[in-house]
Amino acid sequence: MSLFKTRLTEMFGIEYPIIQGGMAAGIVSTAELAAAVGNAGGIGFMCAVQWIDDIDKLEDEIKKVKDLTDKPYGINVTLFTEVGKAWFERVFDIIEKYKVPALETSARSPEPWVPRIKSLGIPWIHKAARVRDGVKAAKLGADAITIIGSEEGGHPGAERSATSVVGPLMVDKVDVPVAIGGGFCDGRGLVAVLAMGGEAVYMGTRFCASKECVIHPDVKQMIVDMQYNETDYLFMSIGDPVRAVRNQRTQKILEIEQKEGAEGLMKFMASTKGDKHSFGGPTAMNTGDTQEGVIPFGMVGGRIDKILPVKEIMDNIVSEADEVLNKLAVRKYWKAK
Ligand SMILES: Cc1cc2nc3c(=O)[nH]c(=O)nc-3n(C[C@H](O)[C@H](O)[C@H](O)COP(=O)(O)O)c2cc1C
Predict the structure, then answer these.
(1) Cα–Cα distance, 327 to 322 (Å, whole number)
(2) Which domains does the chain have, with CATH numbers?
């Protein structure tokens, strides 16, 4: 049996244990990306929260993905509390109406939504940044868990725990299959995840540096140009951190947090709300303003040096993972000829 066949590939009906996580912070994870990942043998999630102001656009995006692929795809529902209950109800109705093949939840406890989620009858994976949140979601009935470490781009959690620690811990604590993410971009990452007991590698930043991702070319180029140690960990003062590429905006935010704490930060964020450079509105990810917006890429950007078509990214991951496995099988080190 192929080592790439796991409970997660079975659950989602995909060829390779590779998941593209839902991404927002502007328009990032669209039909083009999800379809490309699906066509290349993985599964990609489109983030519903991207169309927070015009949820009809989620329907258009689902129609588009169905035109682009007959492979599985998913919708991510990031459970931010500031979005009203009616909005979430609408999203779940859309998922049901279009028979979306898979659901990902993240960011908050899914508890209030469990009956609605279960009524959809589709595979449900919940993403957690803390092991205890993953355990809770599994107890609530999630079919699978993604655990992410603080290396990740986006909202990596206030614990600042490493993927190499929370990954195996999560696997040991639940019976359902676990995807592991935060800091992966290649075949060595896929094998590392399998070695930790994970059943799929989970990635975001790598797929932002793809031809199919709709973010601005100058922003994609930031991934290619950045070093692994050039990200900042923002918003710790309000307990909801974001990892983002270091730029003028992140440095300004850190300065305010250090000098004025949570109160100063909230004032600053409110003063920038609605402006294209603020976090949460239409963002720099799409306008290409590389200095005045929060661009939430992960540390792994420091290992990515090319913007590639998704098919090539996926093929490279699989062939590199095969090569690593073959070498390990004959007890050879990765660099051995
Ligand atoms: C630009 C960007 C935006 C993201 N936005 C979200 C989001 O809105 N909701 C969510 O659950 N995860 C979000 N994430 C997290 C990703 O789904 C994934 O967990 C993360 O990218 C994995 O770590 P990596 O970047 O090291 O691969 C975002 C990640 C990135 C890079």
Answers:
(1) 9
(2) 7-215+307-329 (3.20.20.70), 217-300 (no CATH)
